[in-house]
Design brief:
Strand content: 5-15%
Largest sheet: 2 strands, antiparallel
Number of strands: 4
Number of domains: 2
Oligomer: single chain
Distance between the termini: 44 Å
Order of helices and strands: HEEEHEHHHHH
Strand order of the largest sheet: 1-2
Structural class: mainly alpha
Number of helices: 7
């Protein structure tokens, strides 16, 4: 998911924000192709960072009014599959900046509906919604975690199964939990607010490690207090 545009390229934090906003799918509403693909023998991504206004004045939808930093900022970027990226840049008149901004905004809105980001009436309701998701993640971790004996053999079938479940279940479940909790912050205690932010950072680290080509350092561990998040007082 690289972008060879020098100073107009996004930093690592922006790359993570772009992936989170895409949910792992091309942000063209007429495409929405999965950006991370299992081929059988390999895991590849076809994600490309596209500029709404070009990285330079002569590129597609170029704008002399933008600074270099603004060209590489989150608001000027959209995550697309390689095919859609090529199309919007080669037929730029058919894909103005307003259209691309609308794609990105509407895509995030659709994800919000999928994730069920609505305000619930009580802590008990929030707990009842997130608990099954948290429990599924816990069981997967217990059964497939790299902390088990197979960790010495990263090419084993168990290692592959762990990677697959991480991408297909744990990360999507966690993203949904994040969205639900974000919409229901008013029910949190002060301590839960901190736990929630630690959980958010944990998920960002998981995404960086398992879904992108961003190189990261130490991984934040799952905050154990999340197991009691929104439990009725």
């Amino acid at each position: 998911m690289s972008c060879p545009r020098g100073k107009a390229a996004p930093d690592e934090h922006t790359k993570l924000r772009l992936f989170a906003a895409s949910g792992g799918y091309c942000q063209n509403p007429d495409c929405e192709r999965p950006l991370f693909v299992e081929t059988g023998s390999a895991r590849i991504h076809i994600a490309e960072i596209a500029h709404v206004f070009a990285a330079n004045d002569r590129g597609p939808r170029g704008s002399k009014q933008l600074s270099t930093a603004e060209r590489g900022a989150f608001d000027n970027l959209i995550l697309l599959c390689s095919v859609c990226h090529t199309i919007i840049d080669k037929a730029e008149r058919d894909f103005p900046d307003t259209a691309l901004a609308s794609w990105k905004r509407d895509h995030e809105g659709r994800l919000a509906k999928i994730f069920g980001t609505v305000h619930l009436k009580s802590r008990a309701e929030v707990f009842s919604v997130i608990s099954p998701l948290m429990q599924e993640n816990k069981v997967i971790f217990q059964e497939y975690s790299p902390d088990l004996d197979y960790r010495e053999d990263p090419e084993s079938d168990m290692a592959a199964a762990w990677q697959r479940r991480m991408r297909e279940r744990i990360i999507p479940n966690s993203r949904r939990v994040l969205a639900i909790l974000e919409a229901n912050r008013s029910h949190m205690t002060d301590g839960e607010t901190r736990t929630f932010e630690l959980f958010r950072q944990h998920i960002h680290d998981l995404e960086a490690r398992h879904l992108t080509d961003v190189v990261v350092g130490a991984q934040r561990r799952f905050p154990k207090k999340m197991n009691d998040m929104m439990r009725p007082l």
